[in-house]
Design brief:
The chain has 160 residues and is mostly helical. It has one domain. It is built from 5 helices and no strands. Helix 2 packs antiparallel against helix 3 and helix 4 runs antiparallel to helix 5.
Length: 160
């Protein structure tokens, strides 16, 4: 005599097996170019490119801080290591956000907007500081506004 629990367990495993089967109609990787997949908008791809550029720039900054630790004798070695560590964590976070943006993950919107606010704050300190760094500040502000515009535009886009 088969109990209801045994039937439920068999049904569960049968459904799990059907869900994991790879067929042309159901590609294994949702990010692959399988049939029936929606095409990403050019603005969404451009957003991913902008976040990738920012990730590369922050990674370059982390490498610069690392090189300064070894090439110059810092006044405060602990502080230099902490600044390098913080920059490295930000770079890793932006790389993950960039990958998530290309995969159209919904969690990336908050991460991108948070980074843009931080980037804007950094840019304003460049503008208020040394005159030679003002073009860098204005470039960061333009990049921040462009990225925020694309994120908000993607958030407000009607669903199909």
């Amino acid at each position: 005599m088969v109990t209801r629990l045994q039937v439920k367990v068999k049904t569960f495993f049968k459904e799990m097996q059907e869900m994991t089967e790879i067929t042309p109609e159901k590609p294994n990787n949702p990010g692959s170019n399988g049939r029936g997949q929606k095409r990403r908008s050019p603005l969404a791809i451009f957003l991913g490119v902008l976040v990738s550029i920012e990730a590369m720039l922050v990674s370059a900054g982390a490498l610069y801080f690392l090189s300064r630790i070894f090439l110059e004798t810092p006044d405060n070695l602990t502080g230099a290591i902490v600044i390098f560590g913080i920059t490295l964590v930000m770079a890793v976070g932006l790389i993950a956000t960039s990958i998530g943006t290309f995969r159209a993950q919904p969690w990336t919107r908050g991460a991108i907007l948070t980074w843009q606010i931080l980037q804007f704050a950094i840019a304003t300190s460049f503008i208020q500081g040394i005159i030679e760094w003002q073009p860098v500040g204005w470039t960061l502000i333009a990049l921040s506004f462009a990225t925020c515009f694309l994120v908000v535009k993607q958030m407000l886009k009607p669903t199909d």
